[in-house]
Write a structure and sequence with these properties.
The chain contains 25 helices and 28 strands. The chain has 862 residues and is an alpha+beta fold. It starts with a helix and ends with a strand.
């Protein structure tokens, strides 16, 4: 069909109103009007990153409201039989200057009805946007231009109007939605700022009412600095910022410590939600803050107060160095959706690994062809879509050469696709997760484990790509008094190296710097040049291999509590070794803090000496005897005893989990629900329950009478008639009891771990019996086991080999804690380092390998 016909200019394509009505009659039952709960995907294809901006536009199904690019629309039509689609296209038209004698072109559509971002590369004085919509009927591709109100049936007109006016599918519509897309505040444009002479200093902030120095908010009307609310994660304040709003009515505040050249966290007390302030630069300048020239860190220091090439913000992002942009396959950037840089960095690293490329991009046709009717809710489809977007080069094209611009613009501007927006991927992968579904900054290490969990749960073929990360850890526990030992194995995906601060090679410089820093802070002067602790990698590796004390160790040899030590070794070496430098720790106040250190990470790593050796000659194993459980005879005493024991949570295990990046309350629940049996058992609980809606909610101790049912629910059990939770079964098995006996005991005690152990001790005659009838039950239970622990008879899938590795990537973090800052990824491709900083992909000139947070090594073939 000719272009004139598409826009209603061709007489041959026009039909009478009755003809259009008759044409649509067979399809009327399939045309739906979007309701309030429907998600309308009118800005992005379900299988690709095509949009109305793309050359082929976007087709939106008038029944499912899913969007499809030109390459994927036929697949949906064949699979569903849906025939009527709304085709959306945005055109960029060159303006004709009126001063040159010609008239300005007549706008065919006076209204921009598509909720799309404008291309910042275009000068708005020279170009304008024009949105086009038309109905397309398959399989003949018959096109009906819109608006065509008088000629179309009323239902079709209403459906088209509702679809075009529908809000973003990612905007929060109910409590279960994953994210609330930030909207511009209604106060931003007309905000009144008092001319009271207030200027915000570069450091030394504190609440003007309570002297707190954490979670501080700057009111954008009068410049008051006040504390926010208290949060479960240990951050927060006394709510003085909210009180100030109630007293004054000043609506907007910005969080100090989040201001960067890219924006800041703004909250509207009147609208009761985080908002966007399009005029934030002007509002901050009123109080002397130039956001375009400085980065304010969470402890109040400005990066431009620090000498060049010292601030981690500058070093990690390679600021001050002219970097050459990279284009083509494998060099595609990802848009930051608002504190989503942790996701961008991890996914860039993941899809640089051949096994993930083959699993998702290599199997893309099969994954797409067998995807469910709603591909936006399918993990493998969205992984394949993201992988193809990053690796195809389709969305990473160099800018048009200057000599071609004039020729191209004579027709119509065809914008280049630079980078992808992973909004649909983030919406699905974080759905139901209390942390990743928010707009807050997150820990990249925790997200990596969350991703691996989803990969494990959604097999894409006979070989799982996450197998390349999996390895076995041998843990050797020794009773210091009896010298007897116990060996156990567990599955892990990350090697966590402690920071050996005591081994710093520049201690004198650090002491001198700290004295100067305190003097400068007291005098409210700019801080001195930063001195960063230099830690030898060998010291971190040595700290990892050294024995650690086991808190509250119960020796089965002594039948009593005793001192115990534990050492960890590799029972297998993974194909790809992920190393985390444990920079994040907790202070005495449980506030997460970051160690700003430099570690000389090697390009080539050999950890062969950490290979596990198993039970050695002369070593004697600890007896397989479980600690006694004392339950008083008096029911009242039993109730009291239960609550005392329930609230006795092993803080050392909590701290070990929290240092891995998991939410504090989730760690407390994990240790509580696994009976204080150690961080390893609690870790498995965490991985198995990361998808729970209340994963990070505070621990609520069940009342008496609810103990058994609550405990079972925490492990996933629902009653006597169902199989016991696999986590509980695994705990009892780890104590040396048979699987069938563990199942029998749990079923007899309504899945209460403590009572099940008591039941086993009171039925010693059953321990030697065998239950062949339970074989089938075991098979069923194994299928429901924790996917990470993989307690099946064959054991976990591992790819053991040499312990020699080469560095090929690392993720770096800038900021003072996992709850703030920014992530950047460096990857070695085609023999050179490349920096992936959200949308910006450039050849790296000075890769800051000593400041990384997570490192990726691949095994060197032997």
């Amino acid at each position: 069909m000719q272009r004139a016909a598409l826009f209603g200019g061709g007489g041959d394509a026009q039909m009478a109103a009755g003809d259009l009505g008759e044409l649509l009659v067979p399809y009327m039952p399939t045309i739906r009007v979007p309701k309030s709960g429907d998600r309308v995907y009118k800005t992005e294809c379900a299988f690709s990153y095509d949009s109305p901006d793309s050359e082929g536009g976007l087709y939106v199904c008038m029944n499912t409201f899913l969007g499809f690019g030109r390459e994927h629309i036929e697949r949906h039509y064949r699979k569903t039989g849906q025939c009527v689609y709304l085709h959306l296209k945005r055109h960029v038209i060159e303006k004709v200057p009126g001063a040159s004698g010609g008239a300005l072109p007549k706008r065919r559509n006076a209204k921009l009805f598509l909720d799309l971002e404008t291309n910042s590369d275009l000068n708005s004085d020279d170009f304008e946007y024009e949105d086009e919509a038309k109905l397309v009927i398959f399989p003949d591709h018959y096109e009906i231009p819109l608006p065509n109100i008088e000629e179309l049936p009323a239902l079709v007109t209403i459906a088209c109007d509702a679809l075009l006016s529908a809000k973003s599918p990612y905007r929060k519509q109910d409590p279960d939605s994953w994210e609330e897309e930030l909207q511009a505040s209604k106060h931003a444009k007309t905000l009144v700022q008092l001319d009271n002479g207030v200027r915000i200093p570069p450091s030394g902030w504190k609440c003007s009412k309570c002297d707190l120095r954490e979670n501080l908010w700057l009111n954008l009307t009068d410049g008051s600095v006040l504390c926010g609310k208290w949060f479960f994660d240990g951050s927060g304040g006394n709510g003085h910022a909210v009180e100030h709003y109630k007293e004054t009515g000043y609506p907007l505040a910005v969080k100090l410590g989040t201001i960067t050249p890219d924006g800041a966290d703004v909250y509207s007390f009147d609208e009761e939600e985080p908002v966007l302030d399009p005029h934030i630069a002007k509002h901050l300048a009123h109080f002397g803050i130039d956001m375009l020239q400085m980065q304010v860190t969470e402890n109040g220091l400005r990066d431009n107060d620090i000498k060049p090439r010292v601030s981690e913000w500058e070093v990690i992002q390679e600021a001050g160095v002219k970097l050459k942009p990279m284009y083509g396959p494998g060099y595609t950037g990802m848009k930051n959706l608002g504190n989503s840089c942790y996701l961008n960095a991890v996914m860039q690293a993941i899809f640089s690994i051949p096994e993930f490329q083959r699993a998702y991009v290599g199997n893309l046709p099969r994954i797409f062809d067998y995807s469910p009717l709603d591909p936006t809710q399918d993990f493998n489809t969205q992984m394949a879509k993201l992988g193809h977007g990053l690796l195809s080069g389709q969305y990473s094209k160099p800018p048009v050469k200057s000599e071609l611009i004039e020729q191209v613009m004579k027709e119509e501007h065809k914008p280049q696709h630079n980078g992808i927006s992973p909004r649909m991927f983030k919406a699905f992968i974080s759905k139901g997760h209390p942390e990743f579904s928010s707009n807050r900054q997150q820990d990249a290490q925790e997200f990596f484990l969350h991703l691996i969990n989803l990969v494990e749960r959604n097999p894409v073929g006979s070989e799982n790509p996450s197998d390349v990360f999996r390895f076995l850890v041998e843990e050797r526990t020794q009773c210091c008094q009896s010298r007897k030992v116990r060996y156990a194995e567990r599955v892990d995906y990350i090697m966590q190296l402690p920071v050996a601060m005591e081994a710093a090679t520049n201690k004198d410089e650090l002491i001198a710097y700290e004295l100067k820093r305190r003097e400068a802070e007291a005098a409210r002067r700019p801080p001195p040049e930063l001195v960063r602790a230099k830690i030898p990698f060998s010291a971190c590796l040595q700290a990892f291999s050294e024995p650690s004390n086991v808190e509250d160790f119960w020796s089965s040899a002594l039948q009593a509590k005793s001192a115990g030590v534990k050492t960890s070794r590799f029972a297998s070496f993974p194909e790809y070794l992920v190393v985390q430098i444990k920079k994040f720790t907790f202070g005495l106040d449980w506030i997460p803090k970051k160690l700003d250190v430099s570690v000389d990470m090697p390009d080539f790593l050999d950890i062969s000496h950490l290979r596990a050796r198993g039970l050695q000659p002369g070593e004697e194993e600890l007896p397989d005897i479980a600690p006694p459980i004392i339950i008083p005879d008096d029911p009242k005493d039993r109730m009291t005893n239960h609550f005392v024991e329930s609230l006795d949570i092993d803080d050392s295990s909590v701290m070990q989990l929290a240092e891995m990046g998991f939410p504090l309350e989730a760690c407390r629940k994990a240790v509580y629900y696994t009976g204080n049996l150690g961080a390893e058992v609690a870790f498995n609980w965490v991985i198995a329950h990361m998808e729970d809606p209340d994963f990070a909610e505070p621990l609520v101790v069940p009342a008496f009478g609810e103990v058994a049912s609550s405990g079972a629910a925490a492990f996933g059990g629902v009653g006597l008639d169902n199989q016991p939770p696999e986590e509980m079964v695994a705990i009892i098995i780890s104590m040396g009891f048979q699987r069938d006996l563990a199942i029998q005991a749990l079923k007899a005690t309504n899945n209460n771990l403590e009572h099940a152990l008591e039941w086993i001790f009171s039925h010693p005659e059953l321990e030697e019996e065998s239950e062949p009838a339970l074989d089938m039950m075991n098979m069923v239970n194994n299928t429901n086991a924790n996917v990470l622990a993989e307690t099946g008879s064959e054991g976990p899938r591992i790819k053991d080999g040499s312990g020699r590795y080469e560095l090929f990537g690392f993720i770096s973090h800038m900021g003072t804690s996992t709850m703030s800052g920014h992530y950047v990824c460096h990857l070695k491709k085609e023999g050179r380092w490349v920096i992936y900083n959200d949308l910006r992909v450039c050849a790296s000139e000075r890769p800051p390998k000593d400041l990384g947070y997570i490192y990726f090594y691949h095994r060197i073939p032997s």
